[in-house]
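Students often ask why we bother encoding 3D structure as a string. The short answer is that it lets us treat folding as translation between two languages. Here is a chain of 167 residues written in the first language.
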Amino acid sequence: MRTPKSYIDNLEKGIVTEQMLCDVLFSYNKRAKNWRDKKRQYKHSYSPNSYAWFNSALANEQKYYGYKSQILHLLTPDCIHEEVYENDFESIYNYYLFFVVGDHSFHEPIDKEDLSNYPELQVVRIQNLVTKGASSAKLLSGAFADKVREALLNKEAEIIINKKDKT
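And here it is in the second language, the structure alphabet:
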């Protein structure tokens, strides 16, 4: 997607709106998932370069999930999602901080041991979490997303959340 002029203008003024933040998080999240899917493809490839491609995809997946995580740590989670699935031998539990930003939601994995760090958050059981990547044509440019992330981390921009939409 082409970066809207209003986003560029806002960032120059040190403002990151909720929708801007949502689009940045969405872009990082979907890029990470695209690399995750490529990694899975390379894992089962017999090409002579598949090992190098796998490692490159893994590095990019981790990079984009890391960028998403850096931003999510600036926000307050809405609740904790507990994902439970069964295999032939046991029940497996995964825990995620759950965030709603704009018209999207995001998950940040946490360890069971970290649940005590969030006593104020309700734990909500969910079905298996299934996610997909997205066409890069639907995402903000990586360069713009990086500028927003860096401005937030360096405290050169402030997040403006539209409170009336959160009720």
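Translate back mentally: The two ends are 29 Å apart (CA to CA). Keep this in mind for the problem set.
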